[in-house]
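step=encode ok
step=design start
structure_in=
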């Protein structure tokens, strides 16, 4: 097995450019472990910005309904780190409750001209798009059917 030789100056150049160990490994075509060992051998450390965890800010953002991705962008870290914070410090209880989705009145769908056939009705209640070629509310979420027309189903 060949040992990979990486010059101290090469590593220092990447560190000065604020590359992480993983980024350096990708650039040099070696594993992150190899970069770690060489940096330890040369006494070097990366200068990447450490995330600054602030529990009160995270709680406030969770209460406001922010996602892990949005919180991560605020702190300049990845969403997995935020998910770990939430799990580690028990912050899940502060998440804003999602409103339950409203279900269409299936009785209306049975008497609507845009309703689907019996075999499709388990999955799709309305076939307005299939029968007209355009959506009911131009892609906007809806609490109830806005195009109900009583009558026999169109074929």
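sequence_out=
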């Amino acid at each position: 097995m060949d040992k990979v030789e990486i010059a101290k100056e090469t590593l220092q150049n990447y560190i000065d450019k604020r590359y992480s160990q993983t980024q350096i490994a990708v650039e040099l075509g070696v594993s992150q472990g190899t970069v770690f060992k060489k940096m330890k051998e040369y006494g070097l450390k990366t200068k990447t910005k450490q995330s600054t965890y602030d529990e009160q800010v995270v709680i406030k953002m969770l209460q406001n309904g922010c996602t892990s991705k949005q919180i991560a962008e605020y702190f300049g870290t990845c969403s997995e780190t935020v998910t770990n914070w939430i799990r580690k410090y028990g912050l899940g209880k502060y998440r804003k409750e999602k409103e339950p989705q409203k279900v269409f009145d299936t009785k209306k769908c049975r008497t609507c001209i845009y309703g689907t056939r019996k075999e499709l009705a388990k999955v799709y209640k309305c076939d307005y798009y299939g029968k007209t070629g355009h959506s009911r509310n131009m892609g906007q979420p809806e609490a109830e059917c806005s195009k109900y027309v009583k009558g026999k189903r169109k074929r």
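step=design ok
step=annotate ok -> Residues 55-94 form one domain.
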